[in-house]
Structure formats: C-alpha cells, structure tokens
Amino acid sequence: MSGCVFCGILDGKLPASMVHEDEVCVAFMDIQPVNPGHVLVVPRTHASSLADLEPTMGGHIFQVAQRLAVALRDVASTPGTGVRCEGVNLFVADGEVAGQEVFHVHLHVIPRFAGDGFGFRFGPGYGVQPPRGELDRLAARIHRELWATA
Ligand SMILES: [Zn+2]
C-alpha cells in the first residue's frame, strides 16, 4: 500500500535490518527499540488492523515471534552482543488508542531485563475484581460475537 512505511520496506524501497524472511512475513530491527534486540514481525500482505489480517497469517507471525524470543535469549547469552534478555514481551498495538503508529499490523518482540524501565501503566480501575456475574455476562456476550463472525 502506497504511503505505508512497512510496505516500502517490503518493496525494497526503504532500508531495514532484516532478521528473517519467508513467504508470509519478514522480521526486522525496530529503528526505535525499547531495548537492544527489539524486532518487529511484519506480514507481507498489507493489513492495517487485526480485523483485516488473515488469521492464518496471524498464527504464522506469532510462530516466528516465538522462535525469535528463543533466539534473543540465546543471543543475550553470548557476551558482547549488547542484548540483555531475561524475559520477552510479545506486543501488538491494534488501533491508535492502543499505541499503534504504523498502520500495517506488526508484532513486537521485545527483550526485557530487570530494571529496563519499560512496563505497562494501568488505569485507576485496575485491581478491582468484577463480580462473577459480570464476568459471566461479558464472557457470554463475547462468545456470541466470536461465533457470529466466524
Ligand atoms: Zn503496509
């Protein structure tokens, strides 16, 4: 899609530091890493949101991210790489309010270490456990929607 930075990388018009390429997706270094070793897994087909992404493609990018998470731990265990990886976050920002900046679906693979300063900030309602009836009501409603769109 024209104007899309990730499509520009996929078309070879913009530079990227490639980590992985296959027929379905690519993975490259984030140019604004949360921590050294931060990789983005990007489907070859443009989809601006998860709703537009072919589910099998979503499964595939998760599999690649899973392998990258293992690879990052191995890289971090090698002295001199500059990568510290005591844990990993896989993260998708779907929508602007969720922090999405490039509107071509991508899965972040973020190496984490104690004291790296990154984290989630929770809203004021966090920590309050809703009554079971409320959880059951929402579960049923979401379940219905899930199968309505399948
Ligand atoms: Zn794109």
Tell me what the structure shows.
The radius of gyration is 18 Å and the shape is globular. The protein is 30% helix and 17% strand. The two termini are 27 Å apart. The model has no long low-confidence stretch (mean pLDDT 96). The protein is an alpha+beta fold. The chain has a 5-stranded antiparallel sheet with strand order 1-2-3-5-4, with helices on one face. The chain binds zinc ion (ZN). Zinc ion binds next to α1.
Summarize the structure.
The chain has 150 residues and is of the alpha+beta class.
Strand content: 15-25%
Helix content bin:
25-40%
Q: What are the low-pLDDT stretches, counting only 5+ consecutive residues below 50?
A: none
Gap between N and C termini: 27 Å
Along the chain, the helix and strand elements come as HEEEHEEH
* Small molecules held by this entry: zinc ion
How would the blueprint of this fold be written?
Layout: H1 5-10, E1 18-21, E2 25-29, E3 39-43, H2 55-76, E4 87-91, E5 107-112, H3 132-148
Core attributes:
30% helix; globular; 150 residues; alpha+beta; binds zinc ion; 5-stranded antiparallel beta sheet
